[in-house]
Specification:
Radius of gyration: 18 Å
Number of domains: 1
Structural class: alpha+beta
Order of helices and strands: HHEEEH
Strand content: 25-35%
CATH class: Alpha Beta
Distance between the termini: 32 Å
CATH architecture: 2-Layer Sandwich
Number of helices: 3
Strand order of the largest sheet: 1-2-3
Helix content: 25-40%
């Protein structure tokens, strides 16, 4: 799930949009009947592949997309101009067949987003958070597109 930035309702809305866009892109696959996040109530405390596989099997999920998102920000402060930031997001993902334990698809997606501090931002921390959210959203969108392309290509084979 994307980060939640408690000081701004805009960030909450953006997180909801990122989720909706990501799940919507996965739902475009003809091979997927239903797409949902694994509920936190059944999420194992130790996130290993066998534990995730077991939790997904309990929900009768044939496939589970396991991913890890990491982000980095680089800042450039200026005296007479708006400070700038670049956010980099890397998403590592594997598609796991819950029944067999086979991983038929894996990918690493990298996206970046650069922006300047705007007058709407309450401070540079908000600029950093906004850039990070944008990079995450772009990376997740690419992840969804690549996953669907794999699934639909496998269907045609």
């Amino acid at each position: 799930m994307p980060y939640w930035w408690g000081w701004s309702e805009d960030f909450v809305r953006t997180n909801e949009e990122i989720d909706a866009t990501f799940l919507g892109s996965l739902r475009r696959s003809e091979r997927l009947r239903d797409v949902a996040y694994l509920p936190s109530l059944v999420t194992p405390p130790v996130m290993t592949i066998p534990h995730v596989r077991q939790a997904a099997a309990r929900l009768q999920a044939d496939l589970v997309l396991i991913y890890r998102t990491s982000t980095y920000n680089y800042e450039r402060h200026r005296w007479f101009k708006a400070s700038r930031t670049k956010a980099y997001c890397t998403v590592e993902a594997v598609l796991l067949d819950t029944r067999t334990g086979v991983i038929p698809f894996s990918t690493v997606v990298n996206e970046r987003y650069a922006t300047s501090e705007s007058k709407k931002d309450y401070g540079f921390d908000e600029t950093l958070a906004r850039a990070e959210q944008e990079a995450i959203g772009r990376a997740w969108q690419r992840l969804g597109t690549e996953t669907v392309a794999f699934l639909d290509a496998a269907e045609r084979r």
